[in-house]
Amino acid sequence: MRTLILLALVGLGAQLVDGSLGMAYGVTSTTLLLAIGTNPAAASATIHLAEIGTTLASGAAHWRFGNVDWKVVVRIGVPGAIGAFAGATFLSNLSTELAAPVMSLLLLALGVYVLSRFTFVGLPKGRQGLPLRKRFLAPLGLVAGFVDATGGGGWGPVGTPALLASGRIEPRKVIGSIDTSEFLVAVAASLGFLFSLGRQGIDLLWVGALLLGGLVAAPIAAWLVRLLPPRILGSAVGGVIVLTNVRTLLRSDWVDASGAVQGVVLGVVAVVWAAAVAWSVRAHRRAVALEAAEPLEVGEPPANAAAAAPELQSAPASR
């Protein structure tokens, strides 16, 4: 029972993160499942089965608010589903001893990306422009789907920044289209795992707990994003992912680091993480101050007019 409650909280937290950033549900929840000793393939399968429900709910909500570009959903989602099925099959055929460090390396890379992206850049803002082309969306979906299945997450971290950076679609439609198309990816990855693994290692109670937590968090995420700035949240979550997967790699057969080495490395990572969050907080405050100052600058009278006012007031007295 304690494990189910923990998993529900994991699903809740991961969906809050994903709803605020447009990414990192799979990366966050898979990292935590690996940390409690779950088999890598079973962890990814569990996450993707739960995501069938969470992405369906998220996509429906985005559709209701007009945040979905259906052409983008189809053009990126179908190749993404193909890549996800291939990635699930690939991961299922790796031995646990090899799959665990491979997945941790992939999650570590995604964690470093999320941490650096939100620390130094923040949430990028795209601009509406020309339609996105198939030759851009199809390869992007294929790669993002494969990474998502093999790493337990990655659809958002790979797809969202790429679409935002293209500058050809509104940010709200980037988030909505990525979230909606992820339903196809989750279904394809789940089928790939079920065909390759069967029910082996997949606990449906775990899936249900993650799903329940995610469904509860879905409406809360829209409220949370108003309170906690995405830039700060991204740095905080990226640090959790990096720290957890560095720990997994240090304890793997590939590295097998001593306790002293683990302590030093994890300590350094923790210091860098704290510095990154502090930097994001400072950058956010500076951005808020600049935004608050802009209306004042627009509404202020020119300096020469302010200086001339006392002279005009004193002019009658001098006469």
TrEMBL record:
<feature type="transmembrane region" description="Helical">
    <location>
        <begin position="136"/>
        <end position="155"/>
    </location>
</feature>
<feature type="transmembrane region" description="Helical">
    <location>
        <begin position="43"/>
        <end position="65"/>
    </location>
</feature>
<comment type="similarity">
    <text>Belongs to the 4-toluene sulfonate uptake permease (TSUP) (TC 2.A.102) family.</text>
</comment>
<dbReference type="Pfam" id="PF01925">
    <property type="entry name" value="TauE"/>
</dbReference>
<protein>
    <recommendedName>
        <fullName>Probable membrane transporter protein</fullName>
    </recommendedName>
</protein>
<dbReference type="InterPro" id="IPR002781">
    <property type="entry name" value="TM_pro_TauE-like"/>
</dbReference>
<keyword id="KW-1003">Cell membrane</keyword>
<feature type="transmembrane region" description="Helical">
    <location>
        <begin position="72"/>
        <end position="92"/>
    </location>
</feature>
<keyword id="KW-0472">Membrane</keyword>
<dbReference type="InterPro" id="IPR051598">
    <property type="entry name" value="TSUP/Inactive_protease-like"/>
</dbReference>
<keyword id="KW-0812">Transmembrane</keyword>
<dbReference type="GO" id="GO:0005886">
    <property type="term" value="C:plasma membrane"/>
</dbReference>
<feature type="transmembrane region" description="Helical">
    <location>
        <begin position="260"/>
        <end position="281"/>
    </location>
</feature>
<feature type="transmembrane region" description="Helical">
    <location>
        <begin position="204"/>
        <end position="225"/>
    </location>
</feature>
<keyword id="KW-1133">Transmembrane helix</keyword>
<feature type="transmembrane region" description="Helical">
    <location>
        <begin position="98"/>
        <end position="115"/>
    </location>
</feature>
<feature type="transmembrane region" description="Helical">
    <location>
        <begin position="175"/>
        <end position="197"/>
    </location>
</feature>
